[in-house]
Write a structure and sequence with these properties.
The protein is mainly β. Helices cover 5% and strands 47% of the residues. The termini are far apart. 24% of the residues are buried.
Length: 258
């Protein structure tokens, strides 16, 4: 009688510890039907690969200034690293400058608030997915003429572990009806999908494209270069921050699969 046996060795991969760089999650989203007065910005630190806990940044000074030099102050809440403003004044096309002071260093970024088209209709299909066998939801909107536009939608559902993002632009569709879609093999009648849709700048579109590409890259391949956003460290440029300051008019709605 012959027998074979095998054993498994646990291999610890020694990864270089990343620098504790600041991460700024600063999306100003003026949702349809809301005043846009309540906005939140999140600050954290870059963590090591194996660290599952987020390092929040407390004690920062966070403000946004509009083109008329009006300053909106963001106050830290009971949740560390979460800073809110209750009197923000959104204006389509207005220019805004973010200012974050952490540990004596000043980080800034400037963007304008971008208008988003209205969602005109929502339709459900039964032939979505790679094999044409999944339920699919599409929402439609009319792209403005004579300008270049970029869009971002995110989808949240019980069938997903994380948000799913969909980027698009009006290349080849300028001035026409466009749509964005979501499908999943586990969608069934009664499944709910929360959708947030907004127009974005070309620069943020390109930034998100790199982020999404790196997220699905081979983790054992050559690591991608650090993806830098629009934040600038005015005090010490070499100690740059990650993240992107962006402002959009947006639409958020829920769809229930039929």
């Amino acid at each position: 009688m012959f027998s074979t046996s095998s054993c498994e060795d646990v291999v610890d991969v020694n990864l270089e510890q990343g620098e504790p760089r600041l991460v700024v999650d600063a999306e100003i989203l003026w949702l349809s039907g809301a005043t846009g007065e309540n906005q939140t910005i999140y600050l954290s630190r870059l963590t090591d690969y194996y660290n599952t806990e987020v390092t929040r940044v407390s004690g920062a000074t966070v403000t946004i200034k509009n083109e008329n030099n009006k300053i909106f102050y963001f106050t830290e809440t009971e949740t560390p690293g979460s800073y809110t403003c209750t009197n923000f004044d959104p204006e389509i096309g207005g220019n805004y400058t973010l200012n974050v002071i952490v540990d004596g260093e000043v980080y800034t970024a400037t963007e304008s608030l971008i208008a988003s088209p209205e969602v005109t209709r929502i339709e459900q299909y039964e032939d979505g997915g790679f094999l044409g066998e999944d339920k699919e939801v599409r929402f439609y909107y009319n792209d403005p003429e004579e300008e270049t536009n970029f869009y971002l939608a995110d989808f949240q559902s019980d069938v997903l572990n994380f948000l799913e993002y969909d980027l698009s632009s009006d290349d080849f569709f300028n001035g026409n009806e466009m749509y964005q879609n979501f499908s999943h093999e586990d969608l069934e009648p009664g499944s709910e999908i929360d959708i947030t849709f907004r127009a974005i700048s070309e620069q943020f579109h390109d930034y998100m494209e790199l982020i999404l590409e790196s997220a699905v890259a081979n983790p054992f391949g050559t690591p991608p270069a650090n993806i830098r956003g629009n934040l600038v460290n005015e005090t010490n440029p070499e100690n740059f921050a990650f993240g992107y300051f962006r402002l959009s008019q947006g639409i958020r709605f829920r769809y229930t699969i039929q």
